[in-house]
């Protein structure tokens, strides 16, 4: 069965950087759409960024320039490089994927596969 396992979260001071990883396994077909969401305490899931199988990327407007999504196809791994972190970035970060395109890209219900999340805390 499909599994997504995130890693790389932790505690960092404002202005610092973290790189999240998401290892995808157990699928026999290509995932068309892979991305990152986050959920802060008391708030709904927020789309962070996605990358499509063709390589196209989409970011939340508020995060452009600080966050970068990428993937290593050979390693079945998705990444999120986060720079210039702010306390408002504190959240649980989730990896999500689906075999089809999702519209709008940040529609939580459009993704069938989710990881368990990794906590990012910025102080």
Structural features:
0% helix, 123 residues, mainly beta, single chain
Topology readout:
Blueprint: E1 3-7, E2 10-12, E3 18-25, E4 33-39, E5 46-52, E6 57-59, E7 67-72, E8 77-82, E9 91-98, E10 113-114, E11 118-122
Parallel strand pairs: 2-11
Antiparallel strand pairs: 1-3, 3-8, 4-5, 4-9, 5-6, 7-8, 9-10, 9-11
Could you write a compact summary of the structure shown?
This protein has no helices and eleven strands. The protein is mainly beta. Strands 2, 4, 5, 6, 9, 10 and 11 form a seven-stranded mixed beta sheet that branches. It has a four-stranded antiparallel beta sheet with strand order 1-3-8-7, with no helix packed on it.
Percent range for β-strand residues = over 45%
H/E topology pattern:
EEEEEEEEEEE
Strands, count: 11
Mean pLDDT: 95
Query: How big is the Rg?
Result: 13 Å
Share of residues in helices: under 10%
Look at the helices and sheets and give the structural class: mainly beta
Looking at the structure, what is the overall shape? globular
CA distance, first residue to last residue: 37 Å
Number of contiguous helices: 0
| Main sheet summary | 7 strands, mixed
Unreliable stretches: none
């Amino acid at each position: 069965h499909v599994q997504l396992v995130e890693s790389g979260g932790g505690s960092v001071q404002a202005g610092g950087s973290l790189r999240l990883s998401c290892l995808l396994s157990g699928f026999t077909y290509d995932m068309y759409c892979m991305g990152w969401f986050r959920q802060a305490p008391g708030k709904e899931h927020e789309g962070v960024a996605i990358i499509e199988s063709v390589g196209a990327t989409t970011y939340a407007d508020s995060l452009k320039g600080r966050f970068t999504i990428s993937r290593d196809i050979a390693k079945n791994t998705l990444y999120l490089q986060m720079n210039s972190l702010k306390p408002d970035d504190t959240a649980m970060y989730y990896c999500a994927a689906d075999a089809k395109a999702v519209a709008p890209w940040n529609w939580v219900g459009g993704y069938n596969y989710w990881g368990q999340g990794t906590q990012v805390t910025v102080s």
